[in-house]
Amino acid sequence: KGFFVSINDKDVKLPDGRIVHNGEDFRNKFHLDPLAKADLFVPCGGRPAAININNWKQIFDEHGNPKFKIIVEGANLFITEDARLRLEENGIIVLKDASTNKGGVTSSSLEVYASLALSDEEFNQHMVVKDGKLSDFRKAYIEEIIKRIKANARAEFELMWKEHNEEGIPFTLLTNMVSKRINDITDSVYSSDLVDNEKFREEIVKRYTPQPLLNLVGIKNILSRVPINYLKAITATKIATDFVYNYGLKADEVDFYKYLNGIKLG
User: Fold this and answer.
1) Are 20 and 14 in contact (CB under 8 A)?
2) Dihedral angle of Cα 176, 178, 184, 188, to the nearest 10 degrees
3) DSSP 3-state helix, strand, coil percentages of the chain (rounded to 5)?
Protein backbone atom coordinates (compact mmCIF):
# COMPACT_ATOMS: atom_id res chain seq x y z
CA LYS A 1 0.00 0.00 0.00
CA GLY A 2 1.38 3.37 -0.98
CA PHE A 3 1.45 6.54 1.07
CA PHE A 4 2.46 10.17 0.81
CA VAL A 5 4.09 12.26 3.50
CA SER A 6 4.61 15.98 2.86
CA ILE A 7 7.63 17.74 4.33
CA ASN A 8 5.13 19.89 6.21
CA ASP A 9 3.30 16.94 7.78
CA LYS A 10 3.44 16.18 11.49
CA ASP A 11 2.50 12.97 13.30
CA VAL A 12 1.39 11.01 10.24
CA LYS A 13 0.60 7.32 10.65
CA LEU A 14 2.11 5.01 8.01
CA PRO A 15 0.43 1.82 6.75
CA ASP A 16 2.81 -0.25 8.89
CA GLY A 17 1.65 1.59 12.01
CA ARG A 18 4.68 3.81 12.53
CA ILE A 19 4.20 7.48 13.29
CA VAL A 20 6.14 10.08 11.30
CA HIS A 21 6.58 12.99 13.66
CA ASN A 22 8.35 15.29 11.20
CA GLY A 23 7.77 15.05 7.44
CA GLU A 24 10.94 16.90 6.47
CA ASP A 25 13.14 14.71 8.63
CA PHE A 26 11.39 11.63 7.22
CA ARG A 27 12.13 12.83 3.67
CA ASN A 28 15.76 13.58 4.46
CA LYS A 29 16.42 10.11 5.88
CA PHE A 30 14.03 7.99 3.83
CA HIS A 31 16.88 6.32 1.92
CA LEU A 32 17.84 4.72 5.25
CA ASP A 33 14.29 3.55 6.00
CA PRO A 34 13.47 -0.19 5.71
CA LEU A 35 10.72 0.74 3.23
CA ALA A 36 13.25 2.20 0.78
CA LYS A 37 14.12 -0.69 -1.54
CA ALA A 38 14.84 -0.78 -5.28
CA ASP A 39 17.08 -2.35 -7.88
CA LEU A 40 18.34 1.10 -8.87
CA PHE A 41 18.69 4.10 -6.55
CA VAL A 42 19.47 7.46 -8.18
CA PRO A 43 19.67 10.26 -5.59
CA CYS A 44 19.24 13.46 -7.61
CA GLY A 45 19.19 15.94 -4.77
CA GLY A 46 19.57 16.06 -1.05
CA ARG A 47 22.19 16.67 1.57
CA PRO A 48 25.92 16.06 1.26
CA ALA A 49 27.08 12.97 3.16
CA ALA A 50 23.53 11.60 3.35
CA ILE A 51 25.19 8.18 3.35
CA ASN A 52 28.34 8.19 5.43
CA ILE A 53 30.65 5.98 7.47
CA ASN A 54 28.26 6.10 10.43
CA ASN A 55 25.06 5.02 8.65
CA TRP A 56 26.08 3.02 5.55
CA LYS A 57 25.01 -0.25 7.17
CA GLN A 58 21.42 1.00 7.09
CA ILE A 59 21.52 0.54 3.31
CA PHE A 60 21.29 -3.19 4.08
CA ASP A 61 18.34 -5.06 5.56
CA GLU A 62 18.29 -7.05 8.78
CA HIS A 63 19.73 -10.07 6.93
CA GLY A 64 22.63 -8.09 5.51
CA ASN A 65 21.18 -7.95 1.99
CA PRO A 66 21.52 -4.70 0.01
CA LYS A 67 18.33 -2.66 -0.27
CA PHE A 68 19.65 -1.35 -3.61
CA LYS A 69 21.60 -3.30 -6.23
CA ILE A 70 22.98 -0.23 -7.98
CA ILE A 71 23.42 3.34 -6.75
CA VAL A 72 24.06 6.04 -9.36
CA GLU A 73 24.86 9.36 -7.74
CA GLY A 74 22.83 12.01 -9.50
CA ALA A 75 23.50 14.41 -6.63
CA ASN A 76 27.02 15.55 -5.87
CA LEU A 77 28.56 14.36 -2.60
CA PHE A 78 25.47 12.37 -1.55
CA ILE A 79 27.75 9.56 -0.35
CA THR A 80 31.09 10.03 1.38
CA GLU A 81 34.15 8.33 -0.12
CA ASP A 82 34.65 5.90 2.75
CA ALA A 83 30.96 4.93 2.68
CA ARG A 84 31.11 4.32 -1.08
CA LEU A 85 33.93 1.86 -0.59
CA ARG A 86 32.07 0.04 2.20
CA LEU A 87 28.98 -0.26 0.01
CA GLU A 88 31.01 -1.66 -2.88
CA GLU A 89 32.85 -4.09 -0.60
CA ASN A 90 29.46 -5.45 0.42
CA GLY A 91 28.06 -6.02 -3.04
CA ILE A 92 26.45 -2.77 -4.19
CA ILE A 93 27.53 -1.24 -7.49
CA VAL A 94 28.19 2.44 -6.79
CA LEU A 95 28.76 4.84 -9.67
CA LYS A 96 30.29 7.98 -8.25
CA ASP A 97 29.08 11.55 -8.83
CA ALA A 98 32.28 12.64 -10.58
CA SER A 99 31.53 10.12 -13.35
CA THR A 100 27.75 10.30 -13.48
CA ASN A 101 27.45 14.10 -13.42
CA LYS A 102 29.84 14.93 -16.24
CA GLY A 103 26.90 15.69 -18.49
CA GLY A 104 26.29 18.93 -16.65
CA VAL A 105 29.88 20.02 -17.20
CA THR A 106 29.67 19.13 -20.89
CA SER A 107 26.42 21.02 -21.35
CA SER A 108 27.53 24.20 -19.60
CA SER A 109 30.92 24.15 -21.37
CA LEU A 110 29.31 23.94 -24.79
CA GLU A 111 26.85 26.71 -23.91
CA VAL A 112 29.77 28.97 -22.99
CA TYR A 113 31.62 27.89 -26.13
CA ALA A 114 28.69 28.92 -28.33
CA SER A 115 28.51 32.32 -26.65
CA LEU A 116 32.20 32.88 -27.40
CA ALA A 117 32.00 31.68 -31.01
CA LEU A 118 28.89 33.64 -32.01
CA SER A 119 28.72 37.36 -32.58
CA ASP A 120 26.24 39.34 -30.49
CA GLU A 121 23.83 39.45 -33.42
CA GLU A 122 24.19 35.73 -34.10
CA PHE A 123 23.72 34.87 -30.45
CA ASN A 124 20.57 36.97 -30.22
CA GLN A 125 19.18 35.43 -33.39
CA HIS A 126 20.06 31.79 -32.79
CA MET A 127 20.49 31.20 -29.05
CA VAL A 128 17.99 33.49 -27.33
CA VAL A 129 14.58 31.95 -26.65
CA LYS A 130 11.89 34.27 -28.00
CA ASP A 131 8.21 33.96 -27.08
CA GLY A 132 8.94 30.54 -25.66
CA LYS A 133 10.24 29.23 -28.99
CA LEU A 134 13.66 27.82 -29.76
CA SER A 135 15.40 28.58 -33.02
CA ASP A 136 16.20 25.69 -35.35
CA PHE A 137 19.87 26.22 -34.56
CA ARG A 138 19.35 25.99 -30.81
CA LYS A 139 17.26 22.83 -31.20
CA ALA A 140 20.00 21.24 -33.30
CA TYR A 141 22.70 22.42 -30.90
CA ILE A 142 20.87 20.92 -27.93
CA GLU A 143 20.54 17.62 -29.79
CA GLU A 144 24.28 17.60 -30.45
CA ILE A 145 25.02 18.31 -26.79
CA ILE A 146 22.81 15.40 -25.75
CA LYS A 147 24.59 13.11 -28.23
CA ARG A 148 27.95 14.24 -26.86
CA ILE A 149 26.87 13.58 -23.28
CA LYS A 150 25.59 10.10 -24.14
CA ALA A 151 28.75 9.21 -26.07
CA ASN A 152 31.04 10.38 -23.27
CA ALA A 153 28.96 8.61 -20.63
CA ARG A 154 29.08 5.35 -22.55
CA ALA A 155 32.82 5.68 -23.15
CA GLU A 156 33.56 6.29 -19.47
CA PHE A 157 31.27 3.51 -18.32
CA GLU A 158 32.74 0.98 -20.74
CA LEU A 159 36.27 1.89 -19.68
CA MET A 160 35.42 1.57 -15.99
CA TRP A 161 33.45 -1.64 -16.47
CA LYS A 162 36.37 -3.21 -18.35
CA GLU A 163 38.91 -2.18 -15.72
CA HIS A 164 36.63 -3.31 -12.90
CA ASN A 165 36.12 -6.76 -14.40
CA GLU A 166 39.79 -7.23 -15.29
CA GLU A 167 41.41 -5.79 -12.17
CA GLY A 168 38.67 -5.90 -9.54
CA ILE A 169 39.14 -2.22 -8.73
CA PRO A 170 36.10 -0.59 -7.06
CA PHE A 171 34.18 1.82 -9.29
CA THR A 172 34.71 4.54 -6.69
CA LEU A 173 38.48 4.32 -7.12
CA LEU A 174 38.21 3.91 -10.88
CA THR A 175 36.38 7.23 -11.13
CA ASN A 176 39.28 8.86 -9.31
CA MET A 177 41.81 7.10 -11.53
CA VAL A 178 40.07 8.08 -14.77
CA SER A 179 39.72 11.71 -13.68
CA LYS A 180 43.35 11.92 -12.58
CA ARG A 181 44.60 10.33 -15.80
CA ILE A 182 42.60 12.73 -17.97
CA ASN A 183 43.63 15.75 -15.89
CA ASP A 184 47.31 14.80 -15.88
CA ILE A 185 47.40 14.35 -19.66
CA THR A 186 45.42 17.56 -20.15
CA ASP A 187 47.97 19.50 -18.10
CA SER A 188 50.90 17.93 -19.95
CA VAL A 189 49.44 18.64 -23.38
CA TYR A 190 48.49 22.19 -22.45
CA SER A 191 52.07 22.82 -21.32
CA SER A 192 53.53 21.36 -24.52
CA ASP A 193 54.00 22.86 -27.97
CA LEU A 194 51.23 20.64 -29.34
CA VAL A 195 48.63 23.28 -28.54
CA ASP A 196 50.77 25.92 -30.27
CA ASN A 197 50.69 24.05 -33.57
CA GLU A 198 48.00 25.97 -35.47
CA LYS A 199 47.06 23.21 -37.92
CA PHE A 200 46.89 20.63 -35.16
CA ARG A 201 44.87 22.93 -32.90
CA GLU A 202 42.46 23.70 -35.74
CA GLU A 203 41.85 20.01 -36.38
CA ILE A 204 41.13 19.23 -32.74
CA VAL A 205 38.86 22.26 -32.36
CA LYS A 206 36.91 21.14 -35.45
CA ARG A 207 36.45 17.72 -33.88
CA TYR A 208 35.30 19.29 -30.63
CA THR A 209 32.87 21.78 -32.16
CA PRO A 210 29.25 20.60 -32.55
CA GLN A 211 28.35 20.46 -36.24
CA PRO A 212 25.52 23.04 -36.10
CA LEU A 213 27.93 25.65 -34.74
CA LEU A 214 30.59 24.70 -37.26
CA ASN A 215 28.06 25.00 -40.09
CA LEU A 216 26.76 28.35 -38.90
CA VAL A 217 29.96 30.33 -38.36
CA GLY A 218 32.78 28.23 -39.82
CA ILE A 219 36.06 27.19 -38.28
CA LYS A 220 37.89 30.40 -39.24
CA ASN A 221 35.45 32.58 -37.32
CA ILE A 222 35.61 30.24 -34.34
CA LEU A 223 39.40 30.39 -34.28
CA SER A 224 39.40 34.18 -34.51
CA ARG A 225 36.62 34.83 -31.99
CA VAL A 226 37.29 32.33 -29.22
CA PRO A 227 40.18 33.36 -26.91
CA ILE A 228 43.40 31.51 -27.69
CA ASN A 229 43.80 30.14 -24.16
CA TYR A 230 40.29 28.70 -24.38
CA LEU A 231 41.15 27.04 -27.70
CA LYS A 232 44.32 25.59 -26.20
CA ALA A 233 42.34 24.25 -23.25
CA ILE A 234 39.82 22.66 -25.63
CA THR A 235 42.66 21.05 -27.57
CA ALA A 236 44.35 19.64 -24.49
CA THR A 237 41.14 18.36 -22.91
CA LYS A 238 39.83 16.81 -26.12
CA ILE A 239 43.10 14.97 -26.74
CA ALA A 240 43.35 13.71 -23.16
CA THR A 241 39.73 12.56 -22.96
CA ASP A 242 39.71 10.78 -26.32
CA PHE A 243 43.05 9.11 -25.61
CA VAL A 244 42.07 7.77 -22.19
CA TYR A 245 38.65 6.57 -23.34
CA ASN A 246 40.10 4.79 -26.38
CA TYR A 247 43.37 3.46 -24.99
CA GLY A 248 42.52 2.88 -21.34
CA LEU A 249 44.32 3.49 -18.07
CA LYS A 250 47.31 1.29 -18.87
CA ALA A 251 48.26 3.12 -22.06
CA ASP A 252 51.83 4.39 -22.21
CA GLU A 253 53.88 6.91 -24.20
CA VAL A 254 54.08 4.61 -27.23
CA ASP A 255 50.29 4.38 -27.29
CA PHE A 256 50.05 8.15 -27.07
CA TYR A 257 52.44 8.46 -30.01
CA LYS A 258 50.27 6.07 -32.02
CA TYR A 259 47.17 8.05 -31.07
CA LEU A 260 48.69 11.33 -32.22
CA ASN A 261 49.89 9.77 -35.47
CA GLY A 262 46.33 8.68 -36.15
CA ILE A 263 45.09 12.28 -36.18
CA LYS A 264 44.96 13.37 -39.81
CA LEU A 265 45.33 17.09 -40.32
CA GLY A 266 42.96 18.63 -42.86
Assistant:
1) yes
2) -170
3) 60, 10, 30
Handedness of CA 141, 122, 113, 257 (dihedral sign): positive
Nearest to 86 by CA among 114, 52, 61: 52
- The pLDDT tens digits for 150-167 are 999 999 999 999 999 999
For residues 237-252, average pLDDT:
96
pLDDT over 70, % of the chain: 99
Question: DSSP label at 162?
Answer: H
Q: Is 171 helix (H, G, I), strand (E, B) or coil?
A: helix
Closest among 199, 202, 207 to 241, alpha carbons compared:
207
Strands 38-41 and 68-72: parallel
Question: Whole-angstrom Cα distance, residue 83 to residue 56?
Answer: 6
The pLDDT of residue 2: 85
Regarding beta strands 93-95 and 68-72, do their DSSP bridges make them parallel or antiparallel, or are they unpaired? parallel
- Of the candidates 220, 231, 226, 213, the residue with the CA atom closest to the CA atom of residue 122: 213
Cα end-to-end span (Å), the chain:
63
Q: Counting beta carbons within 10 angstroms of the beta carbon of residue 239, is it exposed (0 to 12), middle (13 to 18) or buried (19 or more)?
A: buried
